[in-house]
């Protein structure tokens, strides 16, 4: 995975008052790469990146790409047990974290057999046996020969929630990531003159592929905006003359509803993409009226992104668009047979820019592929003009503000409480987040507890965005004839209880 060195003096990264040219970026990533080699990191070794959006996470990605180490980004919102599973599953050798996030890792350090060394962005004084990130910028020798990298070698493992409860490690190669960036840059007509505003997490495939890889592959400028507060976003879009911007619907909604948003001059903005959830027509209209640029819906998944995108000249509100560049799409029925336009079926994708499989999970890999076609689990129909219209998800995944949440994972935490006899977690519609998490539980006869107590019990065990916003205690959970919990009945009950439609 390479970045563009034809514009060495051009700005590669802006983060607040920090700026780095491509020449500086190349020098920094070289130094980190050499330091990792001196730490006896070899091709194929896993390096965990437990960082919020900042220049350092970008440096680390590309330093690892240079030496063939595999990056494993970790969501900054995860809690210690979730982090422990990922670090143990991928057998990370080094973890690079930051001062305010490291306490979660400190809770599990003794359980991590393979993690040899920790580096910290920020002050490491409070943590024993943890190195400063700055040490990676000062290798003992200035240069060493960097290895030749096989484009088909794994470059990144991206953990994503799945229906099995535990996250699966989506593996992308140098080739699949490079092609993802190349295809997308050409699709949306980006060049080295563009300025890309980054708010999506750079541990998520959206931030990695749509923004970091795409921008740096063509010599464009990355403007990292963190945290993604509406005022900070608007200020950065205006001040840095951002031309290309990707966000979740919840952020676009926050921008149009920010007081005096029309005071900001965003005339440079020419490309806006939104994904991760449906973009309401009213939001698209409001945004276009306020900032004079359309939001184009895009659809993808950690395994392949984007597989569909609205074309610039004929953006159809409500549609996820047409097949993206480099993507072949099919719609099939339950028997795997192709279906006609107007009929609802599952979207299958084939591309040379998609994952090669799940890390250490050949069964899951085999299950998701059929003759080279990837099953997305997304149900849609296609109109006569070739536009795809999303219907629902075949997989039982909750998507809250663009983040995937496995109901089984949340249920697993609930079941750790001694009072819980049965638990079922569902997603229900929400105008702000797309979906929110709701839980229904039945208690053991000898126990009593409250929703507030259960939520407090879950806080140290699971990321805050996965904790159910409402927990309802029932005497029994509804079941079908086979004894399986009937989730549709609970969804209907949730709409009744919480007055959601």
- SSE-based structural type: alpha/beta
Mean pLDDT: 92
How would the global form be characterised? globular
Instruction: Give the amount of beta strand, in percent.
Output: 25-35%
Radius of gyration: 23 Å
Instruction: List how many beta strands DSSP finds.
Output: 27
Tell me about the largest β-sheet: 9 strands, mixed
Record the strand order, biggest sheet. Answer: 2-1-11-10-12-13-14-15-16
Structural notes for this entry:
- The structure is a single chain.
- This protein has 13 helices and 27 strands.
- Strand 10, helix 6 and strand 11 form a beta-alpha-beta unit.
- Strands 2-1-11-10-12-13-14-15-16 form a nine-stranded mixed beta sheet, sandwiched between helices. Strands 4-3-5-6-7 form a five-stranded parallel beta sheet, with helices on one face. Strands 17, 18, 20, 21 and 22 form a five-stranded antiparallel beta sheet that branches.
- The protein has helices spanning 22-38, 55-67, 80-90, 102-106, 174-187, 205-218, 230-239, 249-256, 281-291, 362-368, 407-414, 451-458, 487-498; strands spanning 11-15, 18-21, 46-49, 70-73, 94-98, 117-121, 131-132, 154-160, 168-173, 195-198, 221-224, 244-247, 271-274, 295-301, 304-309, 322-323, 328-332, 345-350, 357-358, 369-370, 373-382, 388-393, 398-400, 403-405, 420-430, 434-443, 470-473.
- Helix content is 28%, strand content 27%.
- The longest helix has 17 residues, at 22-38.
- Helix 8 crosses helix 9 (281-291).
- By secondary structure, it is of the alpha/beta class.
